[in-house]
Amino acid sequence: MESFFNAEFFIGNRQRLRKLFTGTAPIVITANGLLQRAGDTTYAFSQDANFWYLTGINEPDIVLVMDRDNEYLIVPSRSDNREAFDGQVLNDALTERSGIEKIYNDKEGWDKINGRLKKVKHVAIIGAAPSYVEQFGMYTNPARAKLTERITSFNSNLSLLDLSPHLIRLRMIKQPQELAALQKAIDITVSTVKDVSKPSKLTSYKYEYQLEAELSRGFRKRGAVGHGFEPIVAGGSRACVLHNVANNSALNQGEIIVIDSGAEVEHYAADITRVYLSGTVTKRQQSVYDAVIEVQKFAFDYLKPGVLLLEYEAAIENYMGEKLRELGLIKTIDHQNVRRYYPHSTSHFLGLNVHDVADYDRPLEPGMVLTVEPGIYISDESIGVRIEDDVLITPKGIKILTNKLSRELV
Question: At residue 107, what are phi and psi to the nearest 5 degrees?
């Protein structure tokens, strides 16, 4: 599949970053590193989104330096053994992709930047996350922390400037190439979900993983690199676990099945959720489903330029409370009661990361892409319903990018 991105895209992103960052301090940004899976094997490599946004390069451990009008890459050498297993990193290919002509090996590059760092008071980086994020129970890639450690070893008096706010501002507004890649990922996801959810096929799946496998096959054969995130295929009570990614349970007749998935195309991923049912829908299931659809329509109507997401989420929480009360689930509309059945936000930004970087205090602007995904989860009744679409903020409102996939339950 032809790439949506060329060197001009990445050159332009670096130029835009320079305009936002008006200082004269050197900018030093690292790629991600490989992470051990077991023994001498690694997890599949996933590039740092900011590094890719500025270079288009998918190799680990490379460092980008932007110093005034000078820019170059530092590319660590690989042993013969590693080249035999992982292949060579070809400088010509890096230049063609990124538009960066100057490329140095590890010693040459760090000798060059060392002299500069000893003379300056500031250096601009992307701030490192904590090594462990307790909220999500996850360890983070150590590459940024290692870069900071190496930089400060040359000059312990350096003040570090964090470029994150500038890159967030840039990435929140999608360029035409980004929208094209996102739409391709969405179209692949829509076609695949349509295929795997045909009534004749739904009755053939005995386990959640069989449906997951069909999603994987459909994404790859249609041109995606695979899943943009771990897919969720959850039947019955498991649909009430928001990130049920094990996908290993049996599927039973009459259960609602939640499919939350998204194909990835050149780092940009769709994020779409639909629910299906093999068998006859009950009145209760239909009532819950209809309530979620009404909340989503309310959200669609609310979104437009100038909207603050905190106000938007508060309005949806109140409207969801009305629907939960109509369903007999709550008597009083308040935060605690609503969140018992609707424990997540309605929208997040979409882009290079499925949950993309964003400033949630910034009013919506044309060019931003968000999900809209209300849900109701009633574990006591084994009913979980979530409907998720991807939308582009336009000058007058929104464009629903996922409209080709039906939202009907049956």
Answer: -65, -45
Number of other CB atoms surrounding residue 313 within 10 Å: 16
Amino acid at 8: E
Residue 410 domain-assigned (yes or no) = no
If asked whether residues 119 and 187 sit together in one domain, one would say: no
Residues of 10-26 as b/e, b for ≥16 C-beta within 10 angstroms? bbebbebbbeebeeebb
The tokens for 320 are 């969801």
| Same-domain pairing of 228 and 106 | no
Which residue reads 């949950």 in tokens? 355
Q: Which residues pair with 160 in a beta bridge?
A: 123
**Per-residue tokens: 248:** 């290993």
Residues 153, 203: one domain?
Answer: no
Q: What is the dihedral of CA 121, 122, 127, 130, to 10 degrees?
A: 10
**Helix, strand, coil in percent for the chain, rounding step 5:** 40, 20, 40
**Rounded CA gap, 387 and 197, in Å?**
15
Q: Phi/psi at 143 (nearest 5 deg)?
A: -60, -45
Any alpha helices (H) in 198-353, and if so which ranges? 199-202, 208-221, 283-302, 309-326, 335-341
Whether pLDDT at 392 is above 80: yes
User: Tokens standing for 303?
Assistant: 């979104």
User: Looking at residue 283, which CATH number applies to its domain?
Assistant: 3.90.230.10
- The amino acid that residue 254 corresponds to is G
Residues 61-85 pLDDT 10s: 999 999 988 999 999 988 888 888 8
Q: How far apart are CA 277 and CA 235, in angstroms?
A: 9
Amino acid 22: pLDDT: 87
Task: Name which of 151, 148, 145 is nearest 131 in CA terms.
Answer: 145
Q: Considering Cα of 100, then 106, then 111, then 116, what sign does the dihedral take?
A: positive
- This prediction's pTM: 0.96
Residue 37 phi, psi dihedral angles, 5° rounding: -100, -50
Q: What is the DSSP letter of 279?
A: S
Closest CA to 59 of 71, 75, 43, 72: 75
Contact residues for 401 (Cβ-Cβ < 8 A; gap 6+): 182, 183, 186, 369, 389, 390, 391, 392
User: Is residue 225 located within the same domain as residue 148?
Assistant: no
